[in-house]
Amino acid sequence: MAPGPESGAEAACTEIKTALHALADSEHAESLALDLAAEGGSAAIVEARLSALLDRTQDLRAALKRARQSKAAREPMVDQCTRMGFRALVISEKLSSDVETVLFDNAATIAQAPEIKTGRPALAPKTVEPSN
Residue 88 contacts by C-beta under 8 Å, 6 or more apart in sequence? Predict the structure, then answer.
């Protein structure tokens, strides 16, 4: 029996979900590395985990591209899976960008950046109204 469109949709979703799980594992590993670095550990592990995170992000991007180019792309199941994948991709790219900013743009060490460890947003600078 020839595979039907459902099997194509299932295969596309399975590939996306597998990439999502790998990405989540990589994000978790990056989080642990950041936590250790904030406690005075080495930034080298953060860089290594960032590299793995970027690889998993690329894997997800490739899975999404294949799903969008597949015959099953218009199937509701595939549409739902690709939407979920693209949301995760945006979040992961933001995380990667934030980690790169801390690692490469700041003169401070990771240990001096407690907002990463606590997860609290940085305070906005106060604005001063000019006197008339």
Answer: 20, 23, 24, 60
**End-to-end Cα, the chain, rounded Å:** 83
pLDDT tens digit string along 53-90?
A: 999 999 999 999 999 999 999 999 999 999 999 999 99
**Separation of alpha carbons 102 and 24, rounded Å:** 21
Question: Mean of the pLDDT values across residues 22-29?
Answer: 96
Are the CB atoms for 12 and 84 separated by under 8 Å? no
Classify residue 107 by its DSSP letter: S
Question: CB of 23 within 8 A of CB of 62?
Answer: no
| pLDDT on residue 126 | 44
Quote the pTM value. Answer: 0.72
Look-up: residue for tokens 């799980």? 21
Residue pair 34/116 in contact (Cβ under 8 Å)? The answer is: yes
